[in-house]
Design brief:
The complex is a heterodimer of chains A (152) and B (246). Chain A is mainly alpha-helical and 152 residues long. Chain A has 8 helices and no strands. In chain A, 50% of the residues lie in helices and 0% in strands. Classes of the chains: A mainly alpha (152), B alpha+beta (246).
């Protein structure tokens, strides 16, 4: 009997090592995987909050018109009524956060208008487009058209 | 001082435990539930694109790039110009993703039009299915996102996406893609691309909002998603999409 117990040590010792290993694995796994992993699916729900924390560059139409309602009124009656401010003026969240510190530059109409209105046969037929060279011959667009309400 | 093997294993184990606890503390604390004001269960986001309104100006590409710090030469959204000649393969071009627009085309002997592209935020997404570590997923409000802290950069998802919408971020070495401006739409703003589209060719929509214009759009128009045969349940619907578009 004593002999048997002595020999069984060869099995008991590796079994203890194995159990300790499994224990360590479970402890590490518990530490590494967030408690709420799998709450919505096979992913870390905290990732949603992380992505939502990213900063904004374009503040959005509604914020612009809070102060610039005069410009918004001019625009509302013309063909650019549905073109957002930042589509031409660029990303201005920094300006909205601190209007005096960040002042936007006026866009340069020579290149700005052509981005949309240069003639291209791939553009939809309904869209107003011109061959700039023939149309104005280098004259600035805003010499004739008001950008906020571009009819003549 | 002599270090025995026993000491070495002991020190190693302690370091391993300390390191793993430290590394995950941030993940655990960062896992706070999103604010109450925005309820994920009340939304199911997608986009509608009207091909007949796209003028190929590239405003969406520039806005996306700016808003999301997209590395140069990579695109979360881009615009393609198709030139379809009868009996021939269509010619497709997208110089610099249309970041600077397109050189004007004067060809009148072909059918030509612009197609804006972005992640289709598939409800049954192949990219999510292949991720081995749970780094990419469909959020409860229907946006396909990447968890940068879990992504290994194995690029299975890049290969799995039928629409070519994913890339490996050259600086982070993790996969990057359109988030449908998740940081904007969860606080009531629209996406950067939609905000800056001058013709309203693309619009963010919420399928769970009964007053959203998407319902009339789907009812009144003939619409199609890209590669419907892939059965990915794409949520970007195109109006007037030509059959030649791949």
């Amino acid at each position: 009997m004593r002999r048997l117990l002595h020999d069984a040590g060869h099995l008991v010792r590796p079994a203890l090592v194995l159990l300790a290993g499994i224990g360590l694995f479970l402890v590490l796994r518990g530490a590494v995987i967030p408690k709420n992993f799998g709450q919505y699916g096979h992913y870390r729900p905290g990732a949603l909050a992380d992505i939502r924390k990213r900063p904004i560059s374009f503040v959005g139409q509604d914020t612009c018109v809070m102060c610039h309602d005069d410009q918004a009124k001019v625009r509302a009656s013309g063909k650019h009524a549905h073109v957002a401010c930042e589509a031409c003026h660029g990303a201005l969240a920094a300006h909205a956060n601190d209007p005096s510190a960040v002042t936007p530059k006026l866009p340069e109409t020579g290149s700005l208008c052509r981005r949309c209105h240069e003639k291209d046969t791939a553009k939809p037929k309904w869209f107003p487009q011109v061959v700039t060279e023939e149309h104005s011959g280098g004259t600035a667009c805003n010499a004739c058209h008001l950008p906020h309400n571009p009819h003549l | 001082m002599d270090i025995t093997r026993r000491d070495l294993i002991g020190i190693g184990t302690k370091l391993l435990i300390l390191g793993s606890v430290g590394a995950t503390l941030e993940q655990i604390t960062g896992a706070a539930p999103p604010s109450e004001a925005y309820q994920m269960a009340d939304h199911w986001w997608g986009m509608i694109i009207d091909i007949d309104k796209c003028i190929g100006c590239g405003n969406c590409v520039r806005a996306c790039s700016r808003e999301n710090n997209v590395p140069q030469g990579y695109y979360r959204t881009w615009v393609e110009r198709y030139e379809v000649e009868e009996g021939k393969q269509p010619r497709v071009e997208s110089p610099n993703g249309a970041m600077d627009g397109f050189p004007p085309s004067t060809r009148t002997d072909v059918k030509s039009f612009f197609v804006p592209k972005l992640c289709n935020h598939c409800a049954d997404s192949p990219c999510v299915q292949v991720c081995p570590v749970g780094a990419t997923f469909v959020s409860p409000d229907g946006v396909v996102l990447v968890d940068e802290s879990y992504c290994l950069g194995c690029r299975y998802c890049v290969q799995a996406c039928p629409y070519g919408c994913r890339y490996l971020h050259p600086a982070k070495d993790t996969v990057d893609k359109c988030t449908l401006c998740y940081h904007r739409i969860t606080q009531g703003l629209t996406t950067a691309c939609c905000e800056n589209c001058p013709t309203g060719a693309r619009q963010l929509v919420d399928f769970k909002n009964p007053h959203d214009p998407v319902h009339a759009f789907l009812r009144d128009n003939k619409v199609e998603v890209l590669k419907p045969y892939m059965a990915t349940q794409a949520k970007v619907y195109y109006k007037d999409l030509d059959g030649s578009v791949r």
